Amino acid sequence: MKILIIDDDEDLIVSTKILLNGNGIEVIGAINGEEGIKKALEEKPDYIFIDIDMPGMDGWETLKKIKSHEELKNIPVAMLTATSLSDSIDREEIEGINDYITKPFTREDIIECLRQVYDF
């Protein structure tokens, strides 16, 4: 299984690779939305995790651009957030995602997202 993590925190990407290493999961990282879209198109991951709060193109804009590509629109997505998603977030935005994870997260949090979609 291949997952893509789009987050401006490179340490988070590295630590997630370490957390999931040896569990049949390949972790690909991208440090911004533009790079994330490019890697998603190149790598065709099985699941994408996107940080909401990134400089430049934020997570919601990144999500919309990913979902606008025919070959990416069916890939499950979870949003990464430092705070929990509240009722103030546009329902349209939430409907584009499968799940969300509050930082800091654990290996089990990631695995639980994957299990909701895949027999993992």
Q: Can you walk me through this structure?
A:
The chain has 120 residues and is α/β, with parallel strands linked by helices. The chain has a single domain, classed as Rossmann fold (3-Layer(aba) Sandwich). The chain is 39% helix and 20% strand. The chain has five helices and five strands; from the N terminus they run βαβαβαβαβα. The protein has helices spanning 10-20, 33-43, 59-67, 91-95, 107-117, and strands at residues 2-6, 26-30, 47-51, 77-81, 99-102. Strands 2-1-3-4-5 form a five-stranded parallel β-sheet, sandwiched between helices. Strand 3 (47-51), helix 3 and strand 4 form a beta-alpha-beta unit. Helix 2 runs parallel beside helix 3. The protein starts with a strand and ends with a helix. The model has no long low-confidence stretch (mean pLDDT 89).
